[in-house]
Design a protein that fits this description.
The chain is mainly alpha-helical. The protein is 63% helix and 4% strand. Keywords: Hydrolase, Membrane, Protease, Transmembrane, Transmembrane helix. One of its GO terms (biological process) is proteolysis.
Length: 345
């Protein structure tokens, strides 16, 4: 997929990738090492660092998601964002996709700080820092798992649940196997992505069931109209799919598949002229005037179905609840740190 195609299909994904690369280039211009940036440089450029993030710099919960520790880290996360983003953004919509990425990144960083803080209290850990988009990306991957589970389609294609499970499992196992990987950030991002994607999937399922019900009603109305047409012309024997195909009324199983298709009688077609006597004006011994009228299926096509406002707002309401939960969580850790510092003084 070219950059122009990606920008058209997934504009937020394109902008996120550009921001990752742009921030990395800015670091290089200011003299930051491309492969082994110093701790001071990472803190300066917005890394998630305890206790800074949980004290006066909560903005680091977001900024650290755009910062990467070296070129390989950037390439790995950039490829993952490109792979997941071009699927997830058209599926969820650009606004929900951006909110999903940011909240998953924040959730991952909060869990990282929570785990780090309690390991310090237990005497088993020490303050550190983290950076990278992997928490947000894991949230997107988890959301795609939900989409595959609910068989949400994008451009007519349904995601392969087994493949997504394998990809997510490899990332988690790799994180536990290799030192220095922010597993808490990955897990926190994935959990946040699951929580956000679930209401989106429920709304999709609700709309899909309503659409199926509307389609069934439309098909029944079409069938009733066709049967009424046959009955009014006193030709009950013609209620067969064969004559439907030959004389204009499409088979019921194919209606609405292509509303622009009609099947008029072709006088040059031997299959039609076998039943049509041009000189006598009869079709299978019935007068033309009494032959069933073509029923246009477009007249019975259901209107696009939409769910109620509360259902449409449900994903956003869940995100608001998550934001409130994150604020409470940050405040809780913040107060714990203040209490410890006060006790030390």
């Amino acid at each position: 997929m070219t950059i122009q195609q990606l920008l058209k299909t997934a504009p937020v994904t394109t902008l996120l990738l550009a921001s990752f690369i742009g921030l990395f280039v800015m670091q290089l211009v200011t003299g930051v090492d491309a492969n082994n940036p110093s701790t001071e440089a990472l803190v300066k450029w917005g890394a998630n660092a305890l206790p800074l993030t949980m004290m006066d710099d909560p903005w680091r919960l977001v900024s650290s998601a755009f910062l990467h520790i070296g070129l390989m880290h950037l390439l790995f996360n950039g490829f993952a964002m490109y792979f997941f983003g071009q699927i997830a953004e058209p599926m969820f919509g650009s606004a929900k996709f951006l909110a999903l990425f940011l909240l998953a990144a924040i959730g991952g960083n909060l869990l990282n700080n929570y785990v780090t803080w309690h390991s310090i209290l237990d005497g088993t850990g020490q303050p550190g820092l983290s950076a990278g988009a992997s928490g947000g990306i894991m949230g997107i991957g988890a959301a795609l798992l939900i989409a595959a589970l609910f068989k949400i389609s994008v451009n007519g294609m349904v995601l392969n649940l087994k493949s997504l499970v394998i990809i997510m499992a490899i990332n988690l196992v790799y994180g536990f196997a290799v030192p220095g990987i922010d597993n808490a950030g990955h897990i926190g991002g994935a959990i946040t992505g699951l929580l956000i994607a679930l209401p989106i999937a429920l709304v999709y399922r609700k709309r899909e069931l309503a659409q199926q019900a509307a389609m069934a009603q439309a098909q029944q109305a079409y069938q009733n109209a066709v049967q009424a047409s046959y009955a009014s012309n006193h030709q009950p024997s013609y209620q067969t799919s064969l004559h439907d195909n030959q004389r204009g009324n499409p088979p019921l199983t194919n209606i609405f598949a292509d509303n622009n298709i009609q099947t008029p009688v072709d006088l040059n077609n031997t299959a039609d002229t076998a039943d049509f006597d041009q000189s006598g004006g009869y079709i299978n011994n019935y007068p033309i005037n009494n032959y069933p009228t073509y029923i246009d299926p477009k007249k019975f096509a259901p209107e696009p179905v939409n769910v109620s406002l509360i259902w449409r707002l449900l994903p956003w309401l869940v995100m608001v609840v998550i934001v409130i939960g994150f604020l409470w969580w940050w405040q809780d850790i913040h107060q714990q740190i203040l209490q410890v510092l006060k006790a030390i003084e």
